[in-house]
Each structure stands twice: as structure tokens, then as C-alpha cells.
Amino acid sequence: MNKRIRSHGGAPRSPRKPHSLRAGPSSLQFTRGFRWLPVLCLASCFGIVVAAEQEGLIQTKFRVKFVTSDSVYLEAGREAGLTEGQRLTIRRESPDESGTVARGTAEVRIVSVASSSAAAEIITSDLDIRAGDTAYLSAEDTAKLNLLQADREARKYPQVVTFTEGDPLDEEVREHIPRPPLPEVNRIRGRLGFEYNSIQDHGSGMDSSQLGFVLRADMTRLGGSYWNLSGYYRGRLTSRTTVASQLTLNDLINRTYQLSLTYSNPSSRWVAGFGRLYLPWAASLSTIDGGYLGRRIGKGTTAGVFGGSAPDPTSWSYDPNRQMAGGFVNFEGGHFESIRYTTTVGMAATRVNWRPDRQFGFVENGLFYKQYLAIYHNLEADLLRHDIPLNNGNASQSSGLVLSRDYLTVRVQPHRVISFDISENYFRDIPTFDSRLVSTGLLDRYLFQGLSGGCRLEMPYRISLYTSLGRSNRRGDRQSSWNQMYGITFGRIWRTGIRADARYSKFDSSFGSGTYHSLLLSREIGENFRIELQAGEQTLASPLTSENSAWWVTTNFDWFLGLHYFLGGGYTIYRGAIQRYDQWFLNLGYRF
User: Fold this and answer.
1) Which residues pair with residue 380 across a beta bridge?
2) Over 304-357, what HEC string results?
3) What is the 8-class DSSP label of residue 501?
4) Which residues fall within 8 angstroms of residue 44, CB to CB, at 6 or more apart?
5) What are phi and psi of 451, to 5 degrees?
6) Phi-psi label, residue 165: left if phi above 0, alpha if psi -120 to 50, beta otherwise
């Protein structure tokens, strides 16, 4: 096909006759000037290559600008190449003179991207993430971004021309250059292993053993769809025991896992999720074994239903035989770069062993301004029925709303090194979480009832101090009491590479009063080995349990054997008034 090409250099010139080959003065001058032509060409080519390399640089590390309880906000967004579904590793610069970077101990996944900022949910974390930390893009995502960048560079031409019909070079690129899929399509990561553990009960002198498996998965855009599988699971396949089965401390912690299959399509109004998960718009309901189905209505509004059981032993209304179902409406808006808000309103009903338990409404609100201000509030009100006696001896029924749960926290961070928070916590009924988890720190949000305030200070040498003080004043108390919590974190102890976190708490709550001490030590050796030790001691005076005092020590390790295999293990010693046992486990599996 003939195409007419018109140059941008102006009107076409008439062809010139060739110069004579006879050397004259002018030709000598031309010959001398021509000697510099190769040098000029090399310099031009060098400048073009340098410019192309600078344009093709891919940003692989991003600064953390704000942190909430379960989310991280980055100082980069779509313009820096970030997309939803990407996973990053949080690392912190080492303070030694070598300038090396310590291995990351927290992993996050991007869930929302704006032009210059991004929000990510925390997948795993053994690090107290704070503003100023560095998030690194995975090697796989970096390679895919380089491939996309190379494709864009290949489409640049040294001279601009205009075609009266379609651009043949552009058409040829479309037809013959394969388009790489998006980085999140069919991205499958995780590990699967088999586990053996044994328990020796010192109270009865008997022992037991179990065979199970562990699964950690991060799978996005499965089969090119918009279904994603992520989370962690540890369960039993077979069990051999010579005594009555009882939950150990490790079993209780393992039951706090989350593993969910979710659907989120930007081009669809429907959203869904199944498995053990949080309702994304109402995290205060804790985890459920079930699912949700929602539909986007207009801009910033989502309505849906949910249902399932309540298996999490850290839930304030925990009962392994409780079922729950309800509906919700969520409103959200704003931007991560400025003010953002979210509000969820819903109603739910619960049953215990399929017998009526509660009918309640719930409200959850959040208001955020950059990294400086975060306000969160959730409330639950029960619908109760009362029998009112009449003069004729009969009774009539009436119903009303009664506040059963209220929590408010305000967090202010005027500078990255210091933050303040004020909280108000109220329960009408006694919480029913498993009290054996008090000294693990998983129940701290329930220990302080009433009004309390706290502060966190980031000091030099990667040392952090934090505290919380409050005055408990429950209904029925003769006098109020003080709640206290103090803690210190060492990001790195001297030059050992050991990270430590120690805390002490004294509390007086509706479920009981007591104290606890805890210590966490972790160390990473190279890129493939990690070991952790955690110890705790608690005293508890509570009508909910006869386990008044207990202490425990647990240690575990992870060892990556090459690129695809891993070995893990651990040992726990638990000594309490009722439970006295030793437990060890060993798992071996495959990473993919």
C-alpha cells in the first residue's frame, strides 16, 4: 500500500546535482570539518542512551508515611508504577556504618492506589511498622515492570513523522509484539507443608500427638479472573490422644488465622468473599467462618449481607457455637492525600447452637487526615424484650435498644517520632474471650475499660517507648481504679541484630483484674533463617476461669532450604494451675 509521507522540515526541496570530485578550497574545509563528525555522533548516541536509561528507571522502594492498626500508607502511587495486588516487604535502614539494609520483617499488599499515594493491608508483621520505614517491591513485580518499561521504550522513534493514513509502525507493534499480562494476573505465592506435633501432659502423665498441615497463600487474579485467595491456615488431619482433648496456647493462637477467597472487579458492582475473614466494612464484628456478598450502589456506597460462625477466641463475644447473620450499608469517600471517611451501619442476629441469642445493630465510623489524625468509633446496641406486669396480674412485652458495646479512639501524630491517643472503652456485659491469651498481648484492646490515654515516642538507636494509662469506672464499682501499661521496643540490640519488645500491664476490668509481663525476642540470620522466642507470665482474678496464674515460654524457627523448600519447628512450655504441659512441633513443606 502506497502512503504519502510529509516531513515536518518544511516544503520539499528540488534535488541538487552532485558536487564535482575535484578538490577545491571549499572541499578541503568540508573534509577537515568531517573529521569531527564521528565524535559528535558518538556523543549524541551516548546522550540518547543515558537519557533512555534515566527514563527507564523503575522505582522499587517507597517510604511509609502513615500506619494504622492494620493498614500502611505509602508516599507513592500510580505514577510510580504501583498497582492493586502488589506485595511489598517492609524493611528498616540499618544504623551501622556499612549502610546495609536489614531483611524485611513485615509484608503488605496494596489494596487501593491513587495518583501519588497507596494504601496497603498488613499480611504478616513481626516489626512495629512506623512512618519513615521503607517498603521494597518484590523481585517478581520489579521484573514485570521492567518488561513493561522496555515495551514502552521500544515504541519510541528517533524522528517524528505524520501519516495521512494509519501509522504502520504503530500497527505493526500492536500486531506482532506480545502484550505481557498485568503483574497481578495469575500471581501465585505461598507455601504448603505437613506438620507433626506432640504434647506431654504433666498433670495426667499422658501424651498425645497430631498430624496436620499448614498453608500460607497469596494468589491474585486466579485464571485471569478477579478472584483472589490469601491468608494462613493451620489444622489437624489425624489425632492420637490418651487423655481428653484440650486446647493448648498454640491451638488458641492458631485459631486466630484468616484465609479467604474474595472477588473484587473494578468493572463490576458486585463484591464477595468466603472463608475465615473480616467483614471489610465492619472489622469490629471480628472474624467469621462464612462469607459476604455486596453490591456497589452509586459512588462510594456498598450494601450487602453476611453470615457465619464466630470462631476467633480473641473476640469480645466469643463462643465456638455461635452463628451470626445480618446486613449492612457502607458509605465512604475522600482521598488518602487529604481527608478520608468511612461509615458502616447494619443489623445482625446471633444464635448459640441455633438457639436465639442476640439481635443488635452496629455502627462503625472512621475519619482520617493524612498521617496526622485518625478517629475510629464502633458501637453495638441490643434489642431487648422486657416483661412489664399489669394490674390484672398479666404481663405485656415491650422492647427497647440498650447500648452493649462502645469504643472510641483518637490518634494524633504531629511528628513522625511521637504520637498520642485517647480511648474510651465500654462493655455492658462481661466479655467472653479466652482469658488464657491475656499475656500474649492479643487482648490488650479489652483490658482497659473507661477512659485512657497513651503516647508512643521513637528515640535514637531504634528504641521506642510506649505507655497507656486509664481510670476504670464500671457500673457497680465502689471506686474507680487505675489501669497501666508500659512497654519498650529495641529495633536492634547493640550489634547483635536481635529485636526485642518488653511490656508490663496492670488492669482492672469487668471480667477480672490482674497483671502480666511479656517479652519477645527475634533474630534473622542471613536471608533464610529466622528464630523467635516469646515468654509471658500472668496473674488473673476472675470468675470466668480458675487458671489464676500461669507462665509460658515458646520458641520457633523458620529455615528456607533453597528456593522452594522450608523447615520449621518450635517448643512450648506451659505451667498453670490447671494446664501443665510441654508441646513441640515440626513442619516441612514446599514454597511456590
Assistant:
1) 362, 405
2) EEEEEECCCCCCCCCCCCEEEEEEEEEEEEECCCCEEEEEEEEEEEEEECCEEE
3) E
4) none
5) -95, 135
6) beta
Residues 6 or more apart whose CB falls under 8 angstroms from that of 199 comprise 207, 208, 209, 248, 581, 582, 583
34 CA to centre of own chain: 63
The one-letter amino acid code at 242 reads T
- Report the alpha-carbon distance of residue 474 to residue 509 in Å, rounded: 8
Question: What are the structural domain ranges in the chain?
Answer: 61-151
Any idea which residue has 489425624 for its cell? 238
The residues, ordered by sequence, that sit 6+ positions from 584 with a Cβ below 8 Å of its Cβ are 197, 198, 569, 570, 571, 572
Grid coordinates representing 249 are: 496456647
> DSSP letters along 217-234, please?
EEEESGGGSSEEEEEEEE
Band (166; pLDDT cuts 50, 70, 90): low
- Domain 61-151: top CATH class: mainly beta
- The grid coordinates listed for 409 are 479512639
Instruction: At 199, give phi and psi (nearest 5°).
Output: -125, 130
* Band (295; pLDDT cuts 50, 70, 90): very high
For residue 512, the model assigns a pLDDT of 82
Q: Which residue has the cell 491469651?
A: 437
Closest of 43, 53, 133, 57 to residue 88, by C-alpha:
133
* Model pTM score: 0.67
Q: How far apart are CA 47 and CA 436, in angstroms?
A: 67
> In the predicted model, is pLDDT for residue 384 greater than 60?
yes
Q: Counting Cβ atoms within 10 Å, is residue 26 exposed (0-12), middle (13-18) or buried (19+)?
A: exposed
In angstroms, rounded to a whole number, what is the distance separating the alpha carbons of residues 545 and 433?
A: 11
Q: How far apart are CA 418 and CA 531, in angstroms?
A: 30
Residue holding cell 489437624? 236
Strands of 114-206, DSSP E: 118-125, 134-137, 162-163, 187-201
Is residue 14's pLDDT more than 50? no
Task: Please state the rounded mean pLDDT for residues 353-375.
Answer: 92
Contact 502, 467 (CB under 8 A): no
Cα–Cα distances in angstroms (integers) from residue 241 to residues 125, 209, 396, in the given order: 34, 6, 53
Distance between start and end Cα atoms, the chain: 51
Contacts of 193 (CB under 8 A, 6+ apart): 213, 214, 566, 568, 587, 588, 589, 590
- In terms of DSSP bridges, do strands 355-369 and 339-352 run parallel, antiparallel, or are they unpaired? antiparallel
- For the chain, helix, strand, coil in percent to 5 are 15, 55, 35
